[in-house]
């Protein structure tokens, strides 16, 4: 899956929750006021089930899920990591 | 439309299965036999003593069942969720306190398995599996119950570790736990989780007594007064604490739902036995239709709660995203049914039901707790209704 495809799916998922705003890749999702800290775990479950990666303890940093760009980078990084 | 089978012929295979697999049925029988010999006969004494004896915990650990949710690769029993549900039901049938130990220990185990670092897994999972270390779940506080996002315990990063300040209350088996899965918030308000070991400097554990039900579950209040913990006790990053709590509570809710189904079964068993033996007006009271009505209600309630739990477990085994919602439904039905069943069981037993010589008075006290823990009845109702509305 290309980076743009990943980014598109992440954007589509986040947009379901952050309504009425055109988020840029670097915008802080948690600063929008539309989501709370529970959303972080929803993002974890989303990337695991959508992209088939395992989010591990070291990945559970809010900066990895703060923006569409950060989530895309995490997925790319996990996909590239040797199993 | 499926053609109806003729008399004597097997029905067409519609794909629906409402029975346990052979291994699950064998496991249930083993759980039931264990509880009948080692748990149920002693549960009343443990309740009166407000403590679970160490040898009872060690015996349970010896079965390997404290490692139910831990995969074999980490030394656990690696049970599927249906089998884990059966274990909870049978333990709950015998003693809701001991079942609570399995609940909180499994919650801590699951959290480490799911969210722990490699070092945390290597440190805790084999010990959890063997029952050499007991895990507890420390979320509730004097001012924090249903609203888990409002925890007041504060974690401050200092040097290469963290300092915790606050109080936790109603921590099940907190008196004996070796490690507490403890939730706090950072100074910036981000929820965060830690594995806080017993004996950590600044941690005080005080027993809570005089509890209505699950009296042997050794509740504790934890005081963290400048409690210093190393950086590697943090579970996940700051901001993920609430998510870890919610994910862990799903395991606890399933365990409680199944355990509560065991209370209903215990009420039914005790009531059937008593109704067959107790004679009034020249016949066993089971011959009286108003008693039969209560027995029928208990029977139907048990069947419904049991199968809702089994379905929730099966969905979890399948990785079905509907599993958390169906677990809410199962816990709601089981806990509200248990209250009714326990009230009726006491009623059938009459004055004897109000005496500690009969276990139904304990079932009644325990059932009250089940409508409060792992999501109160009112939280279940809100969650279930919102889920159903959102699905339309």
Give your account of this protein's structure:
- The complex is a heterodimer of chains A (83) and B (392).
- Chain A has helices at 3-17, 38-51, 68-80.
- With 83 residues, chain A is mainly α.
- Chain A has a single domain (3-80), classed as Non-ribosomal Peptide Synthetase Peptidyl Carrier Protein, Chain A (Orthogonal Bundle), CATH 1.10.1200.
- In chain B, a hairpin with a 2-residue loop joins strand 2 (154-158) and strand 3.
- In chain B, strands 1, 2, 3, 4, 5, 6, 7 and 8 form an eight-stranded mixed beta sheet that branches.
- Chain B is α+β, with helices and mostly antiparallel strands.
- In chain B, 52% of the residues lie in helices and 15% in strands.
- Chain B has ten helices and ten strands.
- Chain B folds into three domains: 22-133, Butyryl-Coa Dehydrogenase, subunit A, domain 1; 137-237, Butyryl-CoA Dehydrogenase, subunit A, domain 2; 242-390, Butyryl-CoA Dehydrogenase, subunit A, domain 3 (Up-down Bundle).
- The relative contact order of chain B is 0.11.
- Classes of the chains: A mainly alpha (83), B alpha+beta (392).
- The interface between A and B is medium-sized, with 14 and 20 residues.
Notable characteristics:
heterodimer, A: 83 residues, mainly alpha, Non-ribosomal Peptide Synthetase Peptidyl Carrier Protein, Chain A, B: 392 residues, alpha+beta, Butyryl-Coa Dehydrogenase, subunit A, domain 1, Butyryl-CoA Dehydrogenase, subunit A, domain 2, Butyryl-CoA Dehydrogenase, subunit A, domain 3, 3 domains, 8-stranded mixed sheet, two-stranded antiparallel sheet, 10 helices, 10 strands, globular
């Amino acid at each position: 899956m290309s980076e743009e495809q990943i980014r598109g799916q992440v954007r589509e998922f986040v947009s379901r929750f952050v309504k009425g705003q055109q988020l840029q890749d670097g915008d802080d999702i948690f600063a929008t006021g539309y989501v709370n800290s529970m959303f972080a775990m929803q993002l974890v479950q989303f990337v695991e089930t959508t992209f088939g990666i395992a989010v591990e303890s070291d990945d559970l940093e809010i900066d990895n899920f703060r923006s569409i760009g950060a989530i895309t980078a995490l997925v790319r990084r996990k996909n590239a990591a040797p199993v | 439309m499926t053609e109806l089978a003729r008399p004597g012929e097997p029905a067409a295979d519609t794909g629906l299965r409402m029975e346990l697999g052979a291994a699950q049925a064998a496991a249930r029988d083993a759980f039931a036999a264990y509880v009948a010999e080692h748990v149920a006969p002693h549960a009343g004494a443990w309740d009166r003593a407000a403590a679970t004896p160490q040898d009872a915990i060690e015996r349970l650990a010896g079965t390997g069942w404290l490692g139910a949710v831990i995969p074999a690769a980490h030394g656990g029993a690696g049970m599927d969720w249906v089998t884990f549900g059966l274990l909870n039901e049978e333990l709950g049938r015998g003693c809701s306190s001991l079942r609570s130990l399995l609940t909180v220990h499994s919650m801590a185990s699951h959290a480490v398995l799911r969210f722990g670092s490699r070092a945390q897994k290597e440190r805790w999972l084999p010990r959890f599996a063997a029952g050499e270390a007991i895990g507890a779940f420390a979320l509730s506080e004097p001012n924090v119950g249903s609203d888990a996002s409002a925890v007041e315990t504060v974690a401050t990063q200092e040097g290469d570790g963290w300092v915790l300040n606050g109080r936790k209350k109603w921590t099940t088996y907190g008196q004996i736990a070796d490690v507490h899965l403890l939730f706090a918030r950072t100074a910036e308000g981000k929820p965060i989780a830690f594995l806080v070991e017993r004996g950590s400097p600044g941690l005080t554990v005080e027993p809570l007594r005089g509890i209505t039900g699950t009296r042997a579950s050794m509740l504790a209040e934890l005081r963290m007064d400048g409690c210093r913990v190393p950086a590697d006790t943090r579970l996940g990053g700051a901001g993920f604490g609430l998510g870890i709590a919610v994910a862990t509570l799903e395991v606890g809710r399933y365990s409680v739902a199944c355990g509560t189904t065991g209370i209903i079964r215990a009420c039914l068993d005790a009531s059937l036995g008593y109704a067959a033996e107790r004679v009034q007006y020249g016949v066993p009271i089971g011959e009286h239709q108003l008693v039969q009505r209560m027995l029928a209600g208990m029977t139907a309630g048990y069947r419904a709660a049991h199968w809702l739990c089994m379905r929730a477990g099966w969905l979890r085994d399948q990785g079905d995203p509907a599993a958390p919602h169906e677990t809410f439904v199962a816990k709601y039905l089981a806990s509200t049914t248990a209250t009714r069943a326990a009230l009726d069981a006491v009623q059938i037993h009459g004055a004897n039901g109000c005496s500690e010589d009969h276990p139904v008075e304990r079932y009644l006290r325990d059932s009250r707790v089940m409508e409060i823990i792992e999501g109160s009845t009112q939280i279940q109702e809100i969650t279930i209704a919102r889920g159903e509305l959102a699905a339309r």
